Amino acid sequence: MHQAAPGNTITISRILHAGYVMACEGTRIAFDTIFENPFSRNCHAFPDLRFDHEAIRRQRFDAVFISHFHDDHCSLESLDLLDRATPIHIYCIFDELFDMVRQLGFTQVHPLRLDVPVTVGPFQVIPREAMDADVDSMFQVKAAGLNVLNVVDSWIDDGTLAQLVQEGPWDMVLWPFQTMREIEVLAPSRSTPAPPTLPEEWIPQLQALAPRYVVPSSCQFLQEPWSWYNRAFFPITYAQFAREVGAALPAAQVVRLDPSRSVQLDAGTLRPAPPLDWVIPIGPQDVDYVYEGNAAPPPTADIARHFAPLAPDQFARVLEYCRTTLPAKYGEIDAASDYFDQPRIWRLSLLDHAGQATHFRYRLEPGGPARLDDSDAPLGWTTEIPATKLYGALEEGESLTTMYLRINDTVFDAATERDLEDADVVDDPLIRCLFSDTFGAYQAAQLRRLLARSLPE
C-alpha cells in the first residue's frame, strides 16, 4: 500500500507523444524527450505546437529516461539540446545505441534493467516488462508516496498485469490510448477498417489497475496536411476513450493532458500547474481525430508528386540499390516466411516526383539472392514506393511508418490470391532488405549529421 502524505506532490507535465517531465521536491526527471515538430521526419504534433530550443538548452534535468529505441522516443537531435552531464537511462538490448549517445558527448549513459529501480532524489523509477520485451519497456514512478504508471507505447500481457496489480494502488496511469494502423495502411486494398471500439483487453486491464486518474497518452501526431494517413491511421478519438473508460471506471477521472500542460498530483486532488514555457501551443488545442476507415487512398504516383525531385546522384543511388545491393541483400537475410518458401516474381516500382514509375522485376528463390527477371511469369508480390522515400530510408534512416509503401495493390491470379490470404505484409521483400538486420539507422544518420556540424571558430 502506497500512502501519500498531505501536501506531498508530483508535478507532471506533457512534452509530446509519450514525453513527460516530472518534478518533486526540487528534482526534475524527463521521459522520452522529443523536442521536434515534426518528429520522425513527417509526424506533426497534434494539437500543433513549437519548441523554444534555446529555452530547452537552459533546462536542467536530474535524469532522462528513454523507454525504447524507436525514433519517436529516442532522437539524438532532441538529446543534442540537453546538457551533456545529464544522466541518460535507456531501455535497449542493443549496445550500439548507448555508443551513439556517448559519441554525442553524454558522459553518464546507463542501461535500464527490468524491475531494477533507479533512484533520483525523491523519485524511484522502475522499468517494467512490456509485451515485446526486446523493444519496449514501461515505467513505474514512485515519489512523495504517490504511484504513477507510464505505459508508454506498450501492450501488457497477463503476467505483467498481475505484477502491476500487486504494485498498486495506482494514483495515475498514463495510457497509450491510440491504436496505430501503421501496418494496415501499407496494404489498404487488403485491409478492413478497424472497428470503432477500444481493444477488448484495455478496459479489463484498466479496471484491474483501478487508478484514480487516467491520462490518454502517446500517439499525438498527424502526417503531412495532404496525407490520407491522417484519416486512416488512428481509429480512436479522445472523446471515445474518455466515454468508454469513464463508463467502465466510474471512480476514476480521465484527464486530457495536451503538450505543455502541467498538473499537480497529491493524495487527494489533481490541480492545474503552470505549463512548460518551452512547449508553445499553436492554434486550437481541443481538437480530436477524424477516422474514415481506409479513407480512399490515392495512387502512389499521386503521393510521390508531393515530394521534391531527387538530385541526379541521389536517384542514381536508389537505382544502384535496386539493381545491385537489394538482390544480394535478399539472399543474405532470413526469409522466415511460408509465402516465400517457393519461387515468386516480385515487382518493385519506384515513383519519381512526376509520378513516373521505374519497374524492377525480380525472381525470388528460397535461400538465394533476388535475380532481375524479364520473363512473362505471373506476379506474386508487388511493392510501390516514392523514390524520394527509398532514398530517405537508405541515407537518412527513414522509418517504415513514413515511407508510403503500397503493397500488393493489384489482383493476382487465383492461386496467388489464395496463397496471399495467409501472407504477412511485413514479409515484403523491400521491408526485409531495409529493416530485418539493421538497428538504429535513423539515429546513426542523425549522429552523422550532428558530428559533421562545423565547430565554432
What is the number of helices? 12
- Provide the CATH superfamily of the largest domain: Ribonuclease Z/Hydroxyacylglutathione hydrolase-like
Compute the number of strand runs: 24
Return the CATH class of the largest domain. Alpha Beta
Radius of gyration: 23 Å
CATH-defined fold name of the largest domain: Metallo-beta-lactamase, Chain A
- In which order are the strands of the major sheet placed? 8-7-6-3-2-1-17-18
Distance between the termini: 58 Å
Name of the CATH architecture of the largest domain: 4-Layer Sandwich
Q: Can you describe this structure?
A:
The chain has about 450 residues and is α/β, with parallel strands linked by helices. The chain has two domains: about 10-280, Metallo-beta-lactamase, Chain A, CATH 3.60.15.10; about 300-450, Nonspecific Lipid-transfer Protein, Chain A. It is built from twelve helices and 24 strands. The strands form five sheets. An eight-stranded mixed β-sheet has the order 8-7-6-3-2-1-17-18, with helices on one face. A hairpin with a 4-residue loop joins strand 17 and strand 18 (about 270-275). Helix 8 (about 310-330) crosses helix 9 (about 385-395). The longest helix is centred in the C-terminal third of the chain and has 21 residues, at about 310-330. It is globular and about 75 Å long. The mean pLDDT is about 95.
